[in-house]
Write a structure and sequence with these properties.
There is one protein chain. It is elongated, with a radius of gyration of 22 Å. It is built from eight helices and nine strands. It has two domains: 8-144, Heat Shock Protein 90 (2-Layer Sandwich); 160-309, no CATH class. Strands 1-2-3-5-4-6 form a six-stranded mixed sheet. It has helices at 15-30, 37-54, 105-109, 170-193, 199-216, 218-221, 249-268, 279-296, and strands spanning 8-9, 60-65, 70-76, 111-119, 122-129, 142-144, 160-169, 223-228, 236-246. It is α+β, with helices and mostly antiparallel strands. The model is unreliable at 84-102, 147-156, 217-224, 226-234 and 310-314 (pLDDT under 50). InterPro entries: Anti-sigma-factor_SerPK, HATPase_C_sf, HATPase_dom. Pfam families: HATPase_c_2.
């Protein structure tokens, strides 16, 4: 059953809300959560309307979270925090937009949890649909991202080690960056919205924060030398990365490698609505992170040749 449906790009105008309602009804049926349909439709109508009136194109909708706690996300290109929608004069027969103008209190009343995650490229407003409407004030939303204080990484000590990672294939490295950010965001939102149900998520979120600088800032702040692909002017295909990292970060990376395998297993069991890594991704990440571990322990670097793909992935 396809739990990882591609994000739906919404058209502008009132038809977008109708499309979003049909989409969320379909995905709730796919994951056998028809008990959530009513609240999911109310919530997505409000968020899509808000994005269209106060956000910036493109506007997309997608499903994340878990089967037990599916999370509907509406993303637009504006970095402004979500605002209350502007009331519209509607035709009495237009049942699609009946929730417009009643504000994010609608989302709060039909959610188990909701909030907004803001980054440099836009914002994602999300909610986990409840099984029934709360007649009171509903749950309080939470804003995450640049507008809030980022978690401080663990102090890893002052002793450092020079690490050379040779022949890094940049296409796989960029895929690793994307995978890392998706997983980090996923576990952060799970830890915020459903900490009691997913106690591991809080530990993972802290671990991701600790590793982010070492893993993701390396190419930007390390000393980079590379090999240009055949043909003048071709984009760089591989690179040698030279960085200085805290020696104590090696143990954190070892924990992270173990956690990646555990996350893959959760994904295969459909306990996370994200894709498990491909064999190619597994092999590359084990080599890439393993170079930090090997050299922190005094070993010599091993250049990526592509032959690491043979027989090493699980």
């Amino acid at each position: 059953m396809p739990l990882n449906r591609p994000a739906l790009l919404l058209r502008t105008g009132s038809r977008a809300v109708q499309d979003a309602r049909a989409w969320v009804r379909s995905v709730c049926t796919e994951i056998d959560r028809t008990d959530l349909v009513d609240c999911a439709e109310y919530g997505v109508s409000e968020l899509v309307s808000n994005a269209l009136f106060h956000g910036a194109a493109p506007v997309t909708i997608r499903l994340r979270g878990t089967v037990d706690h599916p999370r509907v996300e509406v993303r637009d290109a504006s970095t402004e925090p979500p605002l209350l929608p502007v009331p519209l004069a509607l035709d009495d027969e237009d049942e699609v937009l009946l929730t417009v103008g009643r504000g994010l209190s609608i989302v709060a009343s039909v959610s188990d949890a909701w909030g907004a995650d803001i980054d440099s490229a836009g914002k994602t407003v999300w909610f986990t649909p409840a099984a029934e409407i709360d007649e009171g004030d509903g749950v309080e939303g939470v804003i995450t991202g640049p507008s809030g204080a980022p978690p401080k990484p663990e102090r890893l000590g002052t002793e450092t080690v020079e690490v050379s990672i040779l022949g890094v294939p940049l296409s796989l490295y960029r895929g690793f960056q994307h995978h890392f950010r998706e997983l980090r965001r996923e576990v952060r939102l799970l830890s915020l919205a459903h900490a009691n149900d997913y106690p591991l998520a809080a530990s993972l979120s802290s671990l991701f924060s600790t590793l982010e600088r070492q893993l993701l800032d390396g190419l930007g702040h390390g000393q980079l030398s590379g090999v240009i692909g055949p043909g003048e002017g071709r984009e760089r295909e591989t690179a040698d990365l030279h960085v200085r990292m805290p020696r104590a970060a090696a143990e954190t990376m070892r924990r992270f490698l173990d956690m990646l395998d555990l996350i893959d297993e959760f994904c295969r069991q459909e306990r996370l609505l994200v894709l498990a890594r491909s064999p190619e991704q597994v092999t590359f990440q084990r080599w890439f992170l393993g170079e930090y571990l090997t050299q922190a322990a005094g070993g010599r670097p091993t250049r990526w040749t592509g032959t690491q793909m043979t027989g090493n992935a699980s």
